[in-house]
Amino acid sequence: MTSFLRRYCRNAGAVAGLVVLLAVVAVSFLAPLLYEESPWMMVADPLIHPFADTAYPFGTDMLGRDITAGLLYGARVSLLVGVVSTAVALVFGILIGAVAGYCGGRIDDALMRFTEFFQTIPQLAMAVVIVAIFNPSIYSIVGAISVVSWPPVARLVRGEFLTLKQREFVQAAVVIGQRPLRIILTQILPNAMSPIIVSASFMIATAILTESALSFLGLGDRNMMSWGFMIGAARTMIREAWWMSVWPGVAILLTVLAINLIGEGLNDAMNPQLRRRGE
Amino acid sequence: MNFLSFFVSRLGKALVVVLGVVIINFFLIRLAPGDPATVMAGEAGAGDAAYVAQLREEFGLDKPVVTQLGIYLKGVAHLDLGYSYRNHLPVLDLILDRLPATFLLMSGAFVFSIVLGVLLGVIAARTRYENRRRWIDSAVMSGALLLYATPLFWLSLMAIILFSVVLGWLPAFGMESVGAGYTGLARAQDIALHMVLPTVSLGCFFMAVYVRLTRASMLEVMGMDFVKTARAKGVPARRVIRVHVLRNALLPVITFAGIQLGQMAGGAVLTETVFSWPGIGRLMFDALLQRDYQLLLGIFFVTSALVVVFNLATDILYRFIDPRIAVGGREAAA
């Protein structure tokens, strides 16, 4: 574990990413303490410029809502949607991939066709259609993002299972009569975890981007302030109030960048051989 | 496997995907909260009982689900994607009307991203491999990492703020100047000018993907024995890169090009929304605003069908470029 930490810390970008992400997490927890009022409340004059009033460091929007409060509350939605939808997609993807890789044959064929189908159809368009039809809410958003993001996990897990299945320790478990479910859960899956963890971190980043795109299109949860919604609302004010769209975008950019850096750091730390090969 | 049976098996797969999308559309409407007819009619139809009743009859909602699916499939097979109550036009007509604009935008972004992406990827790989001017490699890779994390729609807005609002160099909205009445070359020039910002904003993310793909693939090929041989026998460095390395390194790039179109179709919804580009992406956004679900599902169907067609084309192209690849080989490369 310590050698893992040491390898991770050798990557300066990964450490920076972790610091930024921890800051975003802290902010999302502190939001209700720092700003008791809902971020939807009109609290000041409209269109206060950023840095002009110390009470509203990032300015206010055209309705006099505090952009700082919006940014803090938006962090909650982004992280929540990113983590939960990735978790759901992981469970489903691992399930499909494990069954396909372990069973092989016709089951594998059928499941991979199914996976390929979901990988072929345009993901964002599919997510938009799902959220629109089931009415925008945090549940439909998480569901839609999970539906479009599980296929790569399934393929990854299947690949890992196909190779691990041939290894001697798995063969040994088969010989001593362990049940397939137990072999999958206790023998193969733990050994396939590191690529799954790495791809999970990239999935969280993609999920945050997808969530912001959905709420930008007006498909966000009506009760939750999100960064994408703020940019969508700023679209018509672009000539008058540049700051309305700039800050939430920077927030998304920083968060997603931080998570991607963490993902690369994890990848390097978990596969040290790859790193040395120069890639 | 000869080309014909290869083509037929791919075509079969493509048709299955299209059929799958139709079935998804069918069930999405039935899974949605409320009566499918009222969902189809959207808010527009709420006050019009006659229209809802007509929809009910059209879809055979009193019949078993399998019969309903049959009716629906038959309609789609006849290219009947439904009627947009809001626009008073058949859905297919609306989409066909908007398709050329989307094709224009997507092909522009496609060419932009692949040309610049491969070029930058080659430069980055070369500077890294030769260990000279390594900062170029670092700069290109950092730029790609940054673009990876940038929301497409935000990048578009920032481009508008910088190039239209502050600098005033480029038009921000629409596909051509309204009411200018340009014809011929002047019109083409006008459209080209309007295309710059949407094309670049849409292409940027994919460019970053191509940069990383090309660089990784180049570095891998550069380490292979035949490249060492070429260098050892004195082939000029430029020629080694161009002839020996790049040709072999381009295969994963082509694989991604097929996949990219699916993602780009989604990206086009965002770009067209920001730039008021009159394509099917913008149409999708309008359908969202108006809760015009017939239109929404029609667009989803058409974009999926397009992606399938493009994938089919990439598969065939792939087979010509690299005859070693058998039908199942694409998964290994992906």
Automatic annotation (TrEMBL), chain B:
<comment type="similarity">
    <text>Belongs to the binding-protein-dependent transport system permease family.</text>
</comment>
<feature type="transmembrane region" description="Helical">
    <location>
        <begin position="103"/>
        <end position="125"/>
    </location>
</feature>
<keyword id="KW-1003">Cell membrane</keyword>
<feature type="domain" description="ABC transmembrane type-1">
    <location>
        <begin position="99"/>
        <end position="318"/>
    </location>
</feature>
<keyword id="KW-1133">Transmembrane helix</keyword>
<dbReference type="InterPro" id="IPR045621">
    <property type="entry name" value="BPD_transp_1_N"/>
</dbReference>
<feature type="transmembrane region" description="Helical">
    <location>
        <begin position="12"/>
        <end position="32"/>
    </location>
</feature>
<keyword id="KW-0812">Transmembrane</keyword>
<keyword id="KW-0472">Membrane</keyword>
<dbReference type="Pfam" id="PF19300">
    <property type="entry name" value="BPD_transp_1_N"/>
</dbReference>
<keyword id="KW-0813">Transport</keyword>
<dbReference type="InterPro" id="IPR035906">
    <property type="entry name" value="MetI-like_sf"/>
</dbReference>
<protein>
    <submittedName>
        <fullName>Dipeptide transport system permease protein DppB</fullName>
    </submittedName>
</protein>
<feature type="transmembrane region" description="Helical">
    <location>
        <begin position="249"/>
        <end position="275"/>
    </location>
</feature>
<dbReference type="InterPro" id="IPR000515">
    <property type="entry name" value="MetI-like"/>
</dbReference>
<feature type="transmembrane region" description="Helical">
    <location>
        <begin position="145"/>
        <end position="171"/>
    </location>
</feature>
<feature type="transmembrane region" description="Helical">
    <location>
        <begin position="191"/>
        <end position="213"/>
    </location>
</feature>
<feature type="transmembrane region" description="Helical">
    <location>
        <begin position="295"/>
        <end position="314"/>
    </location>
</feature>
<dbReference type="Pfam" id="PF00528">
    <property type="entry name" value="BPD_transp_1"/>
</dbReference>
